[in-house]
Write a structure and sequence with these properties.
The chain has helices spanning 2-15, 21-28, 32-44, 63-68, 74-88, 94-103, 112-115, 127-141, 215-218, 233-240, 262-270, 282-299; strands at 49-52, 58-61, 143-151, 154-168, 171-178, 183-188, 192-201, 222-228, 245-247, 253-259, 276-280. 16% of the residues are buried. The protein is elongated, with a radius of gyration of 25 Å. Helices cover 41% and strands 26% of the residues. Helix 1 (2-15) crosses helix 3 and helix 5 packs antiparallel against helix 6 (94-103). With 301 residues, it is α+β, with helices and mostly antiparallel strands.
Amino acid sequence: MRLDRLLGIVTVLLQQDQVTAPYLAEKFEVSRRTILRDIDAICMAGIPVVTTRGGRGGISILKGYKLDKRVLTTGELQSILDGLSSLAAVPGTASMERLLHKLAPEQGMVSLQDSLVIDLSSYYGNSLAEKISLLREAIAQRRLVCFDYYGPGGKTHRRIEPYFIAFKWSAWYVLGYCGQREDFRLFKLNRLWNLRVTDELYQPREVPEEQRGLEGWLQSEQTLTALFDPAVEYRLIEDYGPASYEPAEDGRLRLTVSYANRDYIVSWLLGFGELAEVVAPGDLRAEVARRARALAQIYSG
């Protein structure tokens, strides 16, 4: 928890001009000696903390640094608190809840508990929170995990070295080194079942820089152009935002977006029924038409 406490101390010092060691000790529930050691560590990290003695003395961040190189704005702090709050819903992360109370300024910010609700369960009951909890445990202990994975090629059994969990584009993922593929792979948690943490330890590998961010895994490869009935504008807003489409000459809405997963985009388009028409690419238009004919044949009887 020391890293959490150091972050909390820096945040308090950025929010207040000057505080005392006893104040910090009480706020973070540690001794005054521990606070002084933490201040030394913060100074070693390159953040200029100044201590002054006397009746009006205390601990503060060097004035020029605070004004010109502020580490966290209130908005940025709110974003961090939002992220921590989402993790606090996962079993075994009670420390995050305590950290929220330590970081939150006493005035000027509403209670996250009252204004933000994040439900990790979705349609999957408690399974998603349980998966995140097990994966966090495996990552901390450097243990291999195994699971059944359902992908476009069908069901496979995987055994991976987990490295980190990420939330991107409304879905949770785990990045791990897959023994079967002998390479790093990204796995979507909603497609991952029968997860088990094994007793087998692994020696951490260096994750290549280009594979640390999700953009490299989820980058778009092709561009879709399609026309939609104005009645489904709300769905275009929800999925891609108002900048993704414009009015067409015939009164419909012309959507232009990039996509990487062909199966997903075909299913998404079919979900609009007769209210959507693919303009380009031609092979995607043909695939949607083929699927539509197959559906018509199934229901024709």
